Amino acid sequence: MLSGPSSLPFWSSIDVYEQQAEGLFRAESGWSGALVGVRDGIVLFENPWAASPLTKLTLRTLMRLHRFRPEYSWYRGDGAPQAGDGGRAGTR
Fold first, then answer.
1. Is 42 domain-assigned?
2. Does residue 51 lie within any of the structural domains?
3. What string of pLDDT tens digits covers the 92 residues of the chain?
4. Rounded CA gap, 79 and 75, in Å?
């Protein structure tokens, strides 16, 4: 395991890790969110501190992207498609 502030105690008995410093979203309120393309699909991280939050329409559109992985994403639930709306509702 790497030593230093960037390493995580992967073999710790607890399953929660608290960030030690302010992250990009808190430092940059101009970012509404981030779309990240990874090998297994696309994930969305919505900025809860954004000066201009994603609109419901934008959030729904992003959630309908091909290979979107809602189970690995973080977004607020009020803009999520409802059951029967062609998408998955909820947040993570």
1. yes
2. yes
3. 445 555 555 555 666 666 677 788 888 889 999 999 999 999 999 998 899 999 999 999 999 999 999 999 998 876 444 433 344 444 44
4. 9
